[in-house]
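Before a colleague's protein record goes any further, I have to sign it off. I want your independent view on whether this chain really folds as the tokens say. The record follows directly below this note.
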Amino acid sequence: MIAHDGRKVLNLQRLTAAAILACASTLAPVPGWATLPDPQKATVAPLVRAVTPGVVNIATRVVETVDNPLLQDPQFRQLFGIPDEAVRRETHAAGSGVIVDAERGYVLTNNHVIEKAAAIEVTTKDNRRFPADLIGRDPDTDIAVLRIKSDHLTPVPLGDSDRLEVGDFVLAIGNPFGLGQTVTSGIVSALGRTGLGIEGYEDFIQTDASINPGNSGGALVTLDGRLIGINTAILSRTGGNVGIGFAVPINMVRRVMDQIIAHGEVRRGRIGVAIQDLTPDLAEALGSRSGQGAVIGSIEPGSPAARAGLVKGDVVTAVDGIAIKSAVQLRNAIGLTPVGQEVELTHERKGSRATTRVRIEPGERTAAGRMGRP
């Protein structure tokens, strides 16, 4: 079962802080962590002091209508003297967020943290409280962008999640159980996790850094103090934590955030293809020399892909120079590219490699409101 509130139970391998610092010593620190501590002291406190002011607590107030036909009947309420307020139910919840633009006051969090919220309040580490405006949200990636108005905010600088490797040390920072800001450590356990059924567009960083209820929307940072993921969910059969947590990679988040800031939503596009993973059998049948990629199974007549000269059986191996390992990764790359922009597809056809530029066109929304195939 996937717990959709960013939870995880501590399950570290007793990694020493000295080993963490040895890894960190090879990285360029961000401002505020100019000097690495003495490894003999076994601490990452200077890094924590530099980053944690950029991680905030988020409190929401949700007003819901009670799903009871009798209570929704005004004559029934009047007959039995039931006040109108009984029809509404107010709940409160807590989560986490990350300041990414101090000048404009932009804060990243999860969509499920603020979904249906009637009011959102952001509390900084120094206990300043601000009402937050919702700039926009994207359920398909579970990302939302808030804005607060304040001076003297501290942003967390963005990293490059494409450079992550399994085994990299990371810190998770958030507001578990509403207790206040908490920092935990771990490693990147896996990359590119998909098929979990959490969101429509999945490319998760898997980590064993301990995250718990309330950590949703919080920061996953590298030991050079850069944000490389937004903590989102855990894998659990009981609702308890089993040491497998997931974060949305910051490179995906950045593309979503840019569109939300520009349009208030993510405008996903398409090129008009149906795709599937490249399997060894398909590679042999198609004469492909690539061991991974996305196979074009069909092309819609008159679509951008058809106009660009792509054909059924082409194996897409890269988008704008970034290697494509699966059909899901190609779908993500196309779906998160702004409409009207061109992408360069590297593809194989009967063993020969070529590149083709394709323009992204608006996609048609499904009945659920999500975009269809790429």
Notes: The helical segments are 17-24, 45-51, 74-80, 111-114, 250-263, 280-286, 304-307, 327-335. Confidence is low (pLDDT under 50) at residues 1-16, 365-374. The CA atoms of residues 234 and 245 lie 4 Å apart.
